[in-house]
Specification:
This protein is an alpha/beta fold and about 200 residues long. The chain has helices spanning about 5-15, 30-45, 60-75, 90-95, 120-125, 130-150, 155-165, 170-175, 190-195, and strands at about 20-25, 50-60, 80-85, 100-105, 105-110, 165-170, 180-185. Pfam families: CLP_protease.
């Protein structure tokens, strides 16, 4: 396993017992593995719906895509609760949830993000091939259309928000359609689950 932080993995697996999965920190291989393991544990325990607790700046698109695929494959219903920030792929994962909630001081951002290229892609660009750029654009446009369909926000508006990397308050996010509900305080069940120590 790639998982480096065993404490986080154990903490996350304990949260599943209460129906929660943490989406904390950067979307990368380690988070991907923990979240996928948590989804399958939730399925085995019959937890449905499951609430994703989100506090993330985003991260790698491939990690987001892998988590999203397992969410769909599991057949579970997912609710999203933003505890702090839902930026980039943190925002995108929220939009995969059937119910989208946030605490009142949460922040949101939809943007294009950054791209990294491997050796073969760089070689193709140097050789003048266009498939690398076309693939990146196609992938970003697919996400854009999916977010537009989920939120009702026109594609042209999302393009503006992405280009400017605009931040939104919870109130603004709800008014626009990025969010279903703002909650004044963290529900006691969430608070209790987050504060559980090793048993």
């Amino acid at each position: 396993m790639i998982i480096e932080d065993k404490d986080f993995r154990n903490y996350a697996l304990r949260l599943v017992d209460d129906g929660y999965i943490p989406i904390f920190g950067e979307f990368k291989d380690t988070l991907q593995e923990v979240v996928i393991e948590c989804i399958w544990k939730a399925k085995a325990l019959g937890k449905d719906p499951v609430t994703l607790l989100i506090n993330s700046n985003g991260g790698f698109n491939l990690a987001f895509s892998a988590i999203k695929a397992v969410m769909i494959e599991s057949g579970l219903t997912f609710h999203g609760l933003v505890l702090g920030k839902a930026f980039s792929n943190g925002f995108n994962i929220l939009q995969q949830c059937s119910v989208r909630k946030a605490v009142r001081d949460a922040a949101f951002m939809f943007h294009w993000g950054s791209q990294s290229l491997n050796n073969a892609e760089l070689d193709a660009l140097i050789a003048g091939e266009k498939w690398v750029v076309e693939t990146i654009i196609e992938r970003e446009m697919l996400t854009l259309v999916q977010v537009s369909e989920r939120t009702g926000v026109p594609v042209k508006d999302l393009k503006k928000y992405a280009a400017r990397e605009r931040y939104f308050t919870a109130k603004q996010a709800k008014e626009i359609g990025f969010l279903d509900e703002i909650i004044p305080d963290l529900p006691k069940g969430v608070s209790d689950a987050l504060s559980k120590k090793d048993s």
